[in-house]
Automatic annotation (TrEMBL):
<keyword id="KW-0249">Electron transport</keyword>
<keyword id="KW-0408">Iron</keyword>
<dbReference type="InterPro" id="IPR024185">
    <property type="entry name" value="FTHF_cligase-like_sf"/>
</dbReference>
<dbReference type="GO" id="GO:0046872">
    <property type="term" value="F:metal ion binding"/>
</dbReference>
<keyword id="KW-0004">4Fe-4S</keyword>
<feature type="domain" description="4Fe-4S ferredoxin-type">
    <location>
        <begin position="319"/>
        <end position="342"/>
    </location>
</feature>
<protein>
    <submittedName>
        <fullName>L-lactate dehydrogenase complex protein LldF</fullName>
    </submittedName>
</protein>
<dbReference type="InterPro" id="IPR037171">
    <property type="entry name" value="NagB/RpiA_transferase-like"/>
</dbReference>
<dbReference type="InterPro" id="IPR017896">
    <property type="entry name" value="4Fe4S_Fe-S-bd"/>
</dbReference>
<dbReference type="InterPro" id="IPR017900">
    <property type="entry name" value="4Fe4S_Fe_S_CS"/>
</dbReference>
<keyword id="KW-0677">Repeat</keyword>
<dbReference type="GO" id="GO:0051539">
    <property type="term" value="F:4 iron, 4 sulfur cluster binding"/>
</dbReference>
<dbReference type="Pfam" id="PF02589">
    <property type="entry name" value="LUD_dom"/>
</dbReference>
<dbReference type="InterPro" id="IPR004452">
    <property type="entry name" value="LutB/LldF"/>
</dbReference>
<dbReference type="InterPro" id="IPR009051">
    <property type="entry name" value="Helical_ferredxn"/>
</dbReference>
<dbReference type="Pfam" id="PF13183">
    <property type="entry name" value="Fer4_8"/>
</dbReference>
<keyword id="KW-0411">Iron-sulfur</keyword>
Amino acid sequence: MSIRLNTPTMPPRAPHEPGHLRGEIGFVKAAHKDLYNATQRRNLQNATTTIREKRAHVVDEVDDWQALREAGSGIKRDVAARMPELLEQFEAAVTARGGHVHWARDSKEAGEIVTRLVQETGETNVVKIKSMATQEIALNEQLRDAGISARETDLAELIVQLGHDRPSHILVPAIHRNRAEIRDIFVAEMPSTDDSLSTEPAELAEASRLFLREQFMRAKCAISGANFGVAETGTVAIVESEGNGRMCLTLPETLISVMGIEKLLPSFQDLEVFLQLLPRSSTGERMNPYTSLWSGVTEHDGPQNFHIVLLDNGRTAVLSSEIGREALKCIRCSACLNVCPVYERAGGHAYGSTYPGPIGAILSPQLTGMDSASDPNASLPYASSLCGRCDEVCPVKIPITDVLLEMRHQKVKHHKPKIEGALLDSAGLLMGKPKLWNAVMRMVALGRVLGGFNGKITHLPSFLAGWTDVRDTAVPPKKSFRQWFDSEEAQELLAQARKEGLRKDK
């Protein structure tokens, strides 16, 4: 099969149907709502603090951790460089082992393929393994429209589904919920529970276990994602902590897996690197409790009908940017979310996309394209303080802050806001003319008349209000730095510093 990858120039055009990759409102407005949710902020702080402390402990145990990160980064860059070749190799290996490979250009096409495959089994109920790819393409909604009920089996995903909610974290979708909220959801939505259910984790786990066991025993068809796909052998890998995924992978007669094309690894030996990087970075474990590997179909062992849907949905467009394609190295560990001060306060829902946090801020705008300055995804590259914590913890060394800056550049380059653009152009003109710049800086003290309480400007007039409405703005100083530096006070301080420096040298 000949594969042609679509690689337009940045920014990429949005796929026909991007699924759950774009929210309805921009990050700033959405974040304001969740910033005032005290319960959610407390839940997020407790959970992310616990996870990142566990991660730090198990990472410190590994002497060659930085070498492992470099190896993982190199492997994923190799995949991006040889994507067509590796995809063909993977398809041939899966087919040779009795599996069926399908190609989907966008979320709509992927949903149609999966829907058709389920309908061919005659089933109207399926069980699902936690999967970011199926969330991305809004698969549950597409199946529902076709009269098919998809039951999530991952405990956190089940909580989100029963609560008629949306995931807010890559690893722990219900991270914004506490035990009391989960207990209330179970009582309201699970037929086998009542008001006697407590908030004890053991009781909540047992209630979900009994509920899901019935789903597993009835299921004839299962849907999964994939953590990795090995081009050399056609092997698909899923790592998990609960074992519910293993039930989906072994009991049903038909298994349909949806895999983003970037999830490929060239060789089986490459799993050695990623099965060390992923659990430590995601759950803070030395090894994940369940690792499931399968290649096609094995007679009398597991599903006898295996399909894998290879999903593009904007990924080949991302390959066109030398900097932006670094985001495709992501292995969905969520380490960047757990250290991000912005995510910890705003929560995952504020990002609008399936992918929240720092990785979502660089991945979603590339997968969908930034259609206009008002596109909700165009605000995501600004949902960061550029502190660099995410760069330090990423197991495959994605330079997230570099990509954020590139996304900001692309947004301004292709969709420069009229007023903001005019102001920035004027600032650029001033900065290029030192005498004019100095004259303007001498007038900066006039801005003090706009001062509010506690040395802050609380409201700027007209279109400038967009700045003060979302951030604290300091009152301008009485003098510019250059004016102050020429003053007697500054010269005295400078002379004193020089004297102290000479005494220390002696």
